[in-house]
């Protein structure tokens, strides 16, 4: 089992990069944000517990997150390759991920840190739209759909995430700065951190990541 992590503030482009890496490689995409949104929609016990934290833009407690990820990995097989998007977000989660992967004889091979300035993150988040059916990402200015409000890929309805509002975005960026940024140091010390300029065009960000993955075999 191989594992890579996409690390970056909300709006850095983790989801967009992950979708394209998924189509061009055999990495499976694990987005804890998507898993939680599905759990909320389905009114599962995890969803019910997570909903209030998500609405406020705060992190869902580590205990819930680790169960969610452990359960997902337990359904995999030894040859699987995983790409984590939005996980880990705390040092505690990173340690628990190491432990879970260790049990499966695996480790985090690369952590791609998608770095972009705050102003850009804000404009990306406020303009972000997502397809309700297939999950494809759009932006009203940067990646507009051919027809407003309609997904180019599947014709599904585009919506704005309820936590992509100015008030919640502020909290989410603060949480990133205070809790998630310490992971950069954590992974840098392990020699697996690769900083990627996420302010450049998404094609270039993707090219850098794929280049690194291919050179590593
Ligand atoms: P995302 O889609 O990654 O921006 O996540 C949306 C929201 O889900 C976050 O603001 C958190 O409330 C929650 N969430 C997602 N992943 C995690 C995680 N690894 N740890 C804690 N909360 C998370």
Q: What key attributes describe this structure?
A:
five-stranded parallel β-sheet; 217 residues; Rossmann fold; alpha/beta; binds adenosine monophosphate; globular; 9 helices
Short description:
The protein has 217 residues and is α/β, with parallel strands linked by helices. The protein has helices at 14-24, 32-41, 45-56, 62-74, 91-103, 118-127, 166-180, 182-189, 202-215; strands at residues 2-8, 27-31, 81-85, 108-115, 128-131, 137-139, 158-159, 193-197. The longest helix is centred in the last third of the chain and has 15 residues, at 166-180.
Task: Write the topology of this structure.
Elements: E1 2-8, H1 14-24, E2 27-31, H2 32-41, H3 45-56, H4 62-74, E3 81-85, H5 91-103, E4 108-115, H6 118-127, E5 128-131, E6 137-139, E7 158-159, H7 166-180, H8 182-189, E8 193-197, H9 202-215
Parallel strand pairs: 1-3, 1-4, 2-3, 4-8
Antiparallel strand pairs: 5-6, 5-7
Residues 10, 32-33, 36, 53-54, 57-60, 65, 86-87, 89, 93, 163, 172 line the site of adenosine monophosphate (AMP).
């Amino acid at each position: 089992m191989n594992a890579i992590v996409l690390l970056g503030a909300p709006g850095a482009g983790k989801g967009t990069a992950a979708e394209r890496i998924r189509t061009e490689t055999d990495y499976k995409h694990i987005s804890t944000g998507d898993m939680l949104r599905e759990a909320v929609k389905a009114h599962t016990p995890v969803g019910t517990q997570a909903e209030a934290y998500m609405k406020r833009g705060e992190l869902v407690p580590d205990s819930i997150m680790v169960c969610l990820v452990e359960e997902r990995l337990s359904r995999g097989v030894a040859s699987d390759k995983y790409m984590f998007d939005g996980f880990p977000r705390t040092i505690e989660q990173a340690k628990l991920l190491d432990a879970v992967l260790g049990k499966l004889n695996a480790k985090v091979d690369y952590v791609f840190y998608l770095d972009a300035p705050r102003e850009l993150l804000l404009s990306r988040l406020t303009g972000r739209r997502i397809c309700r059916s297939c999950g494809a990402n759009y932006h009203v200015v940067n990646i507009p759909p051919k027809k407003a409000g309609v997904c180019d890929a599947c014709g599904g309805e585009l919506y704005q995430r309820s936590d992509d509002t100015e008030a919640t975005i502020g909290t989410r960026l603060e949480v990133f700065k205070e809790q998630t940024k310490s992971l950069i140091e954590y992974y840098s010390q392990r020699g697996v951190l690769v900083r990627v300029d996420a302010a450049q065009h998404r094609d270039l960000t993707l090219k850098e990541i794929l280049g690194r993955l291919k050179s590593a075999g």
